[in-house]
Amino acid sequence: METKTIRFLRRGEPISLANVPPDRTLLEVLREDLACTGTKEGCGEGDCGACTVVLAEPEGEGLRFRAINSCIRLAHSVDGMALWTAEDLAAEDGALHPAQEAMVQCHGTQCGFCTPGFVMSLFGMYQNHVCKGEAVTRELAQAELSGNLCRCTGYRPILDAAQAMAGLPPVRVDQARVAAQLREMNEAPAPGQGAYLAPKSLAGLLAARAAHPQAQIVAGCTDVGLWVTKQHRQFAQILDVTRVAELRRVEQYPHHIAIGAAVTLSDAFAALVADRPQLKTFGERFAGLPVRNSGTLGGNVANGSPIGDSMPVLIALGANVVLMSQRGHRELPLEQLYTGYRQNVIAADEVLAWIKVPRPTKAEQLKAYKISKRYDDDISAVCLVVNLTLDGDLVQRASIGAGGVAATPVRARQAEASLNGQRWTQQAAQRAAAALRAEFQPISDMRASAAYRSEVLGNLMQRFWLESQGLTQINLESFELEEAA
Question: What is the DSSP letter of 32?
């Protein structure tokens, strides 16, 4: 089946690639088709960051820069974007970009294999913060480098490099020129069709889904990319929802926000944090920044992994999902979407279009907990999100979402029932902890044993009680990274 030609900008020049299979990754195209071997393959699953590159799209009069993992990003998804790799940063005379020069001056490289990925994350940080006059704090540097792993454990000088970039001679991207080039490129349709469908309107998406129910839907590819790289699955036809203009928006309403299925996890969590600042740390721990910059909230929800972190949060917040097709739309509570392990009620001609999240109330007490072997850039063993509506010390409503303890993300109904209408006391928290442990029968796997998951699930409820009484030092969120001397 014929595929569309992929067009993107690199070093300010348009690149066109024809006959690229729909399931070919961006990393494969860079290394094997374009001989850009500076971009490395480390894990092939978006964990280590060695393959990080930076993409940009027009936003306002300038550009929006995003560091992403090229190993699990499908090549066709970058059509109409600007792309930078580690080989594109130095000037024509060989002068290094501040992201590179800072790494040299701060001795931020050891074996060097991860270095191109770190440099590209630094470049993204430079464009999004330094070029806007914003200070790069130690905390910001650690948060935005969380998706890059250094197996030589050289993090301290790399964090130094992040902060040193602003003190070097500035290098600017001509954003207006690049944005104009991209707009011109996107006005002309690319030749070819068929194997990689990327409609730009909701009507076009629904028509494509009705016509091609067998096509694999992708919405960022941070899960499907693993099927390609690890399971070696092949897809004859792909339907990409991330270009649909209507679904790239976060819409604000008096009683809820509506997050489109194509909104990136970075932007989706930013919208949630705007209403609920207590979710900030949890959002940053969802995954490394390059994964959050590619993955979408809609994709995470539709995939339905029992250890997907967004669903317990959304369940606790009382979120609904909107499913759409050419036949119409229907809305249901998020927890009712799932029927079994990675199975759901979405029909063959439907797509998950929106996630609707209620606004917080003044009486809401919310806490989200993620337990994983590694603090940053890791998958949960257990996730628990507790949301209580209190009238004084009376629990008017308990809403609890859990992950990692069942075949699907779940609402903890028995624990909720043990709290509703009760006084919020230590004894009530202990009863809820016992109800949590009794309600689920988790499995043992590579991340945790069943007994550990069950024990931790109840312990997190007791932690919630302690923190609701003002005790904060029991949580790593209270730890503040000191600035370098």
Answer: I
* 198-358 CATH, one of 3.30.465.10, 3.40.50.2300, 3.10.270.10, 3.90.1300.10: 3.30.465.10
Could you tell me which of 317, 25, 18 has the C-alpha nearest to residue 192?
Answer: 18
Do the Cβ atoms of 310 and 300 come closer than 8 Å? yes
Per-residue pLDDT reduced to its tens digit, 350-370: 999 999 999 999 899 999 999
Host H or E run for residue 69: strand 62-69
Question: Which residue, chain included where needed, has tokens 């624990």?
Answer: 415
CA distance 376 to 277: 19
Kind plus residue range of the DSSP H or E element containing 463: helix 450-468
- CATH (residue range 364-476): 3.30.390.50
Q: Please say whether the beta carbons of 382 and 371 come within 8 A.
A: yes
Q: In this predicted model, what pLDDT tens digit does every residue of 127-138 receive, in sequence order?
A: 999 999 999 999
The whole model's pTM is what?
A: 0.93
Query: Between 3.10.20.30, 3.20.20.140, 3.30.565.60, 3.50.50.60, what CATH number should domain 6-175 receive?
Result: 3.10.20.30
Which of these, 240, 225, 205, lies nearest to 323 by C-alpha position?
Answer: 205
What digits encode the pLDDT tens for the residues 298-344?
Answer: 999 999 999 999 999 999 999 999 999 999 999 999 999 999 999 99
* Domain coordinates in residue numbering, the chain: 6-175, 198-358, 364-476
pLDDT tens across 30-59, in order? 999 999 999 999 999 998 999 999 999 999
Smallest Cα–Cα separation from 222: which of 335, 66, 410, 33?
66
Cα–Cα distance for residue pair 236/369, rounded to 1 Å: 39
For residue 291 the two structure tokens come to 């994964």
How many whole angstroms separate alpha carbon 246 and alpha carbon 402? Answer: 30
Pairing of strands 82-84, 52-59: antiparallel
Q: How many CB atoms lie under 10 A from the CB of residue 134?
A: 12
